[in-house]
Amino acid sequence: MLGTFNTRVIALMPVAIAINIVLGYTVQTVLKLPIYLDSIGTILVGVLAGPLPGALTGILSNLIWQYTPGIGGGTIGPFAVTAGVIGLLAGLWGYLGVFRPRPAAGSQLYLAALVGAAIVLLLAIRIYTSPIYGTDPAQGGYGPGVYVLIAGIGIAAALAVAGFIIWRRDASGAWVAAAGAVTGIVAAIVSAPIAAYLFGGVTGSGTDLIVAALRQGGADVFNASLGQGLFSDPIDKTITSFIVFIILSSLSTRVLARFPLGERLVAQQRA
Amino acid sequence: MRPAEGVYHRLNPTTKLVIAFAAALIAFGVRGWSGPVGVLGVVGVTAAVAGIGRGMRPFVLATLPLIASILIVNTFLYPDAHDVLFRVGPLAATGTGLAAALQASLRVVAFALSVAVFSLTTPTDDLLVDLEHRGLGRRGVFVIGAAIRTIPRMAERAGEIVESQRARALDTEGSLLRRVRGLVPLAGPLILGALSDVEERTMALEARAFSAPGRRTTLRPIPDTAGQRAVRWLVALGSLALLAATAGGVITPP
């Protein structure tokens, strides 16, 4: 249940750590996108090998990123805690078979697309109604902008998930979206106290604008960081989960089946 | 990495690791001014002794965006602070906010410098050899060592992929949507290429008795002294005790 460390997993882990660091660095500095994408390797190992290997990959990624000369990672080290939790959750998703392809057609496919969109909207509404962004929009100081943004992102994400499911003819998109969004919410809850307690609530990236907006609206240090996290992390982790899903589905069954959780990643054969 | 020179360089790598972790713990864990300032002082003296002042510059420069953000957000937007220093448009700078901002900035600088002292004085290979000598299994040593060696190669590969996709009209400068579209042609080849190496590495490791039982013998033991062992325990337990004492309210640091 907790995961296996066979030679294949041990060979995968350094590669996954390097993917985390190099891709995270490239996305943040070359493409300059406002997301992190530094947990693809962590989720990959978690899904393929279980919670413990996933957690270790996440923790080691952040520590190596911080302490290796030349790639120095600013504030990344203390967030090893978050990375570990992300790996644990990914192991759970792998164990539950979330990332297994589920080919569907006809009405079943459209039902799955609806369910996927509904899950995303439900989580977006939960974030929308979170007291962090003020209990009453009319009373809040930062105006309706935040709400319009959350609603817009929620609807766009729901459409993207439904579109993905129909395009790939695979009902798993709904599961992957839910797993990614839940991972993001948990990551935000774990990260907020670290940012608030260690770094004055900010991280030195573009997302600090959201922190400033929430502070301006009257949120305290912790809630402003949590609000920013609940904004960025579910989006980041959902995108990451879909990237991992696409990678896994482009690997051959032969390669997948050799990993400890491989059986749970290949489509179930009909007897 | 240059050969070890000077007193601090010659310390056992694990001693330097323990000191670095203790510095991070105190800089972040002991609130108020004394924690970060104390660590900054200790780290500054160590850096001077080790003679690495010049090498620390990039580490300090790297913290500048974060510090700018900490100073601006906290000075002007500190919750429930009313001791206004001056106003810029609709925003008011508060004394409480400025104090909190300066403390957070000091913490970040102290932490960054403690990281710098460790990474500039400790060759990774030495640390791994020493940790294996102390009982870290070969799996752990392999994962950490291989990861550190893979990063520069993969970064090079990522650079090549970005260049070749640019040559095929990938837009890395345009609007947000265009840059998002650039994600797949970048991440896809990078990850799939890296995963195809895993299979070969597995075979290579198995062929070299990686999963054989028993411990490996250390060919080149890293020198250690009884004095350093005492220092390690003292630093580790002392920093934890200090943290517990300040968190529990036994000592209130200024």
Description:
The complex is a heterodimer of chains A (271) and B (254). Chain A is mainly α and 271 residues long. The two termini of chain A are 26 Å apart. Helices cover 68% and strands 0% of the residues of chain A. A two-stranded antiparallel ribbon of chain B has the order 1-2. In chain B, a hairpin with a 2-residue loop joins β1 and β2. With 254 residues, chain B is mainly alpha-helical. Helices cover 70% and strands 4% of the residues of chain B. Chain B has helices spanning 6-10, 13-29, 34-50, 57-62, 64-76, 95-121, 124-133, 138-167, 176-181, 183-207, 226-247; strands at residues 84-88, 91-94. The mean pLDDT of chain B is 85. Chains A and B meet through α1, α3, α8 and α9 of A and α2, α4, α5, α6 and α8 of B.
Could you give the order of strands across the largest sheet of chain B? 1-2
Radius of gyration of chain A: 19 Å
What is Rg of chain B? 24 Å
Query: Fraction of residues of chain A in helices?
Result: 55-70%
Biggest β-sheet description of chain B: 2 strands, antiparallel
Runs of chain A in which pLDDT lies below 50 for 5 or more consecutive residues are: 135-141
Individual helix count of chain A:
10
- What average pLDDT do the residues of chain B reach? 85
Question: How many strands of chain B?
Answer: 2
Task: Give the N-to-C terminal Cα separation of chain B.
Answer: 40 Å
What is the helix/strand order of chain B?
Answer: HHHHHEEHHHHHH
Order of helices and strands of chain A: HHHHHHHHHH
Distance between the termini of chain A: 26 Å
Query: Globular, elongated, flat, extended or rod-shaped: what is the shape of chain B?
Result: flat
Report the uncertain regions of chain B.
none
